[in-house]
Amino acid sequence: MKSIPLQSRLPRTLRIAQVRKETDMVTTFMLPISLGSLPGQFLMLWLPGRDEIPMSIALDDGENLQVTFFAVGDMTQALAKLKAGDLVGIRGPFGTSYAWEKKQHLALVAGGYGAAPMFFAASKAAQDGCTLDVIIGARSREHLLYQQSFASLPRTTVHIATDDGSEGHKGYNVTVLAELLSSGVKFDQIFACGPERMLVAVSDLAAKEGTKCLLSLERYMKCGYGLCGNCTVDPLGIRLCTEGPVVEGSLARQIAEFGKYHRDELGRKHPF
Amino acid sequence: MKLTQTVHGVTFENPTVLASGIWGITAASWRRAAEAGGAGGITTKSIWLHEHKGHPNPTIISTEHWTLNAVGVPDAGPEKAREEMAAYMINKPAPLILNIIAESVENYGKTAEALLPMKPDFLEVNISCPNVEDEFGKPFACSAPAAGAVTKAVKAVAGKTPVFIKLSPNALSIAEIAIACAKEGADGFTVINTVGPGMAIDLRSRMPILSNKVGGMSGPAIKPIAVRCIADVYAATEGKLPIIGTGGVHTGEDAIELMLAGASLIGIGTAISTRGFDVFKKVAAEMQEWGEREGVEDLEELVGGMHEEMRRRAVIAK
User: Fold this and answer.
1) Contacts of A11 in chain B (CB under 8 A)
2) Which candidate in A9, A66, A251, B6 could, as Cys together with B62 as Cys, close a disulfide (CB 3.0–4.6 Å)?
3) pLDDT over 90 for what percent of chain A?
């Protein structure tokens, strides 16, 4: 008996191949499947009987897929208890992705678990001969993600910023980016994924420098394929599940709510 | 071919309307559906009198044939709806149809009253949502007395705003429900809401995929049901009350088929996920192209065209 091909809009369950604890709070699942995903895209991860949430893809190498998440809410805490062999459902990939040209010089700014999708972009861009400056930001040293993985990539310099100074620059990763720019480093593009206020700061810097930047924005999502309208942003009405999550900085700056508020499942506004 | 449609004195640039429940949460999305998307009109999501939580995810799943949704009609209530409607009314790009829902006959009237000051062009009354049945039992749309009572309650407060009752394909006789609503003064109908509910099971986990287990079915597969229901309602009301035909429309030809059954306006929702947010523009262009090829000058002559043709042939046969 043969199955019809995996339909991206219908979840299909599979068994987790491997669970890796990145930190106390952060877990990575390795799933034995490829969705043909591109860096920056996301999938919907379903725990049967519980919930389904959007999750950025940390790697899709054509055979295996990886997602990394913080156990912060009920669903992610339930996910963090899963072991190899447990079932999860996935559907996707959804949304826009990061794009670059061969041999470009890229700055990759990753805040918190934004490091995971940024690693996917970095690993693919490195294969295209790009030179990378990766700036990872976290609360403290034990919250740094994918540091060794980034460091193992060719033509890649890893910069660290921690809020408490336990490793690297004490303060924000955006400050490190600003220092690189003011020291005269020219980037072809800047990619950023992390808290929205960090994205605003990156887009400000990029606009000032006249450098193209691509930012990954997050909103409450249900369908993932542009139908329900939960992730539309004011005043453009664009859907971040299909016309995002990766958007150009110039577009993000036309979004009135960028860095200011987001909406819950009822459509009610909440400030960042 | 003229694409504009005037229904109860309200002019739609083309007959396509954003269906309720899709994209309907914010003024920004309504505006985009109308301006860049080309929708001739837009319908809000269903608004409750009080905040109403939806179901957990998964709430929407699709294949190429069908979409199942059990979003659960989440809504923040009239205050937020008023804010969004006010934002949309500034340089309103297309007519606004306000969709309301309630758990009791009394609250239908109250919800309409709370929002009518925002001056929607039409009021659409959702008596037929299949995915809150666990909460509220069978929808009002499956009982002629209940559907009539809701119509009466809304008409009592609606004043001059035309009231469209959104009917369910699940009623044993949709004609009977339509007649009951018409007797209480309904000004038109939206036909149909989603079908079912349906269910999808994941094989490995042996669990229903939707968190609500069941969900209303939409998508290409439901079009024949929509066509039949529209034809039934049109015949039962002798074509006197306008119908917003909704269900499975993806192309201009689909839209024309619903018009021949009796629809004056065409609701489009699920097709956004396959043809893009500008599906309205595409469907309108396809209708135009078809009309010109077939020598149809005014869309209005298509409305109820099947009934007219059947009568004509019956007369000839005699």
Assistant:
1) 58, 61, 202, 209
2) A9
3) 92
pLDDT interval class at B150 (50, 70, 90): very high
Residues in contact with B210: Cβ distance below 8 Å, sequence separation at least 6, in sequence order: B55, B58, B59, B61, B68, B70, B199, B200
Tokens in use for A188? 């072809």
Token pair of A30 as six digits: 């390795």
Domain B5-317 coded CATH 3.20.20.70 = yes
Which tokens in the block code for residue A203?
Answer: 């887009």
Which domains does chain A show, CATH number per domain? 12-94 (2.40.30.10), 105-271 (3.40.50.80)
B99 with B126: CB under 8 angstroms? yes
Question: Nearest Cα to B84, choosing from B127, B118, B59?
Answer: B118
Collect all residues of chain B within an 8 Å Cβ-Cβ radius of residue A49. Answer: 207, 211
Interface of A with B (CB under 8 A): 7, 9-14, 44, 46, 48-53, 87, 89, 91, 222-223, 225-230, 232-239, 263, 265-268
Residue A185: strand pairing partners: none
Helix (H) or strand (E) holding B226: helix B223-236
Does the CB of B152 have a partner CB in chain A at under 8 Å? no
- A91 CB neighbours in chain B (<8 A) are 61
Q: Which ipTM did the prediction report?
A: 0.91
Known catalytic residue at B229: no
Q: Tell me the CA end-to-end span of chain A in Å, nearest whole number.
A: 50
Looking at CA atoms only, how far is residue A41 from chain B in angstroms? Answer: 17
Tokens of A191: 């990619």
∠A80-A83-A87 over CA atoms, to 5°? Answer: 95
Model confidence pLDDT, tens digit, residues A123-156:
999 999 999 999 999 999 989 999 999 999 999 9
Measured between CA atoms, the residue of chain B closest to residue A54 is B57
Q: Which of A96, A118, A100, A97 is nearest to A108 (CA)?
A: A118
Crossing angle for the helix pair B279-294 and B252-261, to the nearest 10 degrees: 70
Q: Would you kindly state where each structural domain of chain B is located, as residue ranges?
A: 5-317
Chain B partners within 8 Å of A237 (Cβ): 26, 28-33
Q: Do residue B80 and residue A232 have CB atoms under 8 angstroms apart?
A: no
Give the pair of three-digit tokens for residue B198. Answer: 């349906």
Q: Cβ–Cβ of A263/B26 closer than 8 Å? A: yes
| Residue B282 contacts residue B250 (beta carbons within 8 Å) | no
**Distances in Å between the alpha carbon of A186 and those of A132, A133, A158?**
12, 11, 16
Measure the CA–CA gap between B176 and B178, rounded to whole angstroms: 5
The contacts of residue B280 (CB under 8 Å, 6+ apart) are B14, B16, B18, B33, B37, B38, B39, B40, B268
